[in-house]
Amino acid sequence: MNSAIENERLVTVQIVNAFVQDGQGGNPAGVLLDADGLSDDDMQTIAAGMGLSETAFVSKSATEGFKLDFFTPNRRIPHCGHATIAAFSLLLQNGRVGDGETSKETVDGPRKIVIKDGKPFMEQLAPRFADPEAWNSVTLADVLSSLSLTEDDLDPRAKPSRVDTGNGSLQIGVKSDALLRALSPDQDAIAKISAALDIVGFYVFTTDDAATPHDAAARMFAPHYGIPEEAATGMMAGALAGYLYERVGIRKPHFVIEQGGYMDPPSPSLLTVELDLLDGAIQGLMAGGSGKVMDRRTVQF
Fold first, then answer.
1. Full-model pTM
2. What angle do CA 105, 238, 74 make, to 5 degrees?
């Protein structure tokens, strides 16, 4: 077992905040290095005991730099952006990686990781879009009702869309900082819609200058995975960058997205996304930011 395991039923997990701004804020993830030998049931129990939105388990890989398994308090997920940034930030701090390229093995296949100026960036797939007409049993009215919004509240440049860059989300633009701040999410309704659309959750954003000096400010609701609201979500920020480029028409390769500032208490996070473009088409993307170890917790499993 791993050196962090104090006996056969106790394990010490690091808490690493990903996407911090100037060493503050960010989104906490559990990270357990040297997790070889743990079963899926073990990892699920540990993640539930951590009580964080996601916990990453890092082990040896026969094909990639490292193997990463991700668990929320109630289920496995194929990828997790902030837990990936947290895991590679801890590996960087421990001297196991340095600037340059490595990779992660996941249940959904390998993904490239690039460490640039001490910041990990993770590869995501080119975005795939599904507009409301393709949502089958879910309507746009259902989605708006779950957030207490009307169609007049939406960003008029593009309709909400299901976007998938490795994990699915609904990308929903609203007109103003005030609307984003005042959202009243119906967590049960969002969970049901998320299950029906096979998505992690809703990523609601605005490009209103009053909300952020950057490209967008966003809020993430993922009750289907036991997360009422999340402070930073790298996979969804990547999807948002693709949406802003393809659907909203902001044609540039670099996006910076704020998240977590509307939470109580606030945990402001900064997520950077670089699009890989070829003749104007997105081939893939890299999302990244800074991570910082904040605490540790011992969990029985």
1. 0.87
2. 60
